Amino acid sequence: xxxxxxxxxxxxxxxxxxxxxxxxxxxxxxxxxxxxxxxxxxxxxxxxxxxxxxxxxxxxxxxxxxxxxxxxxxxxxxxxxxxxxxxxxxxxxxxxxxxxxxxxxxxxxxxxxxxxxxxxxxxxxxxxxxxxxxxxxxxxxxxxxxxxxxxxxxxxxxxxxxxxxxxxxxxxxxxxxxxxxxxxxxxxxxxxxxxxxxxxxxxxxxxxxxxxxxxxxxxxxxxxxxxxxxxxxx
Length: 234
Hints:
Membrane topology: Multi-pass membrane protein
Structural class: mainly alpha
Oligomer: single chain
Keywords: Lipid biosynthesis, Lipid metabolism, Membrane, Phospholipid biosynthesis, Phospholipid metabolism, Transferase, Transmembrane, Transmembrane helix
InterPro entries: CDP-diaglyc--ser_O-PTrfase, CDP-OH_P_trans, CDP-OH_PTrfase_TM_dom, CDP_ALCOHOL_P_TRANSF_CS
Catalytic activity: a CDP-1,2-diacyl-sn-glycerol + L-serine = a 1,2-diacyl-sn-glycero-3-phospho-L-serine + CMP + H(+)
GO molecular function: CDP-diacylglycerol-serine O-phosphatidyltransferase activity
CATH superfamily: CDP-alcohol phosphotransferase transmembrane (TM) domain
Number of strands: 2
């Protein structure tokens, strides 16, 4: 029974990621674009945690892999495309809606190709830009959209669509020990977002005040555990 509960923990984080995608779409439809973007970034944190937890708890499974792909297409494919449509492409009418819909199509193909790729290759590099990174970039563009010309959004959106299905090799960070590189960037990003929205906390999704401390605690646990393992080896 305990083993079964342990194996389900990574899937809970994956489902939380999926729910963030659903909430993001709802916030975007309601005109709360910054909140919608924040939820996509929270989904990125949860997505990075479920894989780490699965390896930590030896809970990798085919079910978890498929569930992760389904969650990713919602949170990092459909949600960002709605966000970009509501914030910019809406001015082009039906054409803008059709163009925004291309992003999850390219993302779905990218995920399917990743799922059938050899396991060894997927551990050392990604073929094409991962949909998680692409969706996160679109979310950041929305957060800081007033800083850049609108044409930049169109160019980056188009580039990301093609980069996801390209054969470009992107180095994977799966084998890099915590808390380095992408993990540190995620921590600082979470702290930055809290600082930016402190004054508007009444309208801010409270989930980030739960997700960010939990993520930092998770990283601290991994760092301490890795230090203990090194001492045992020595």
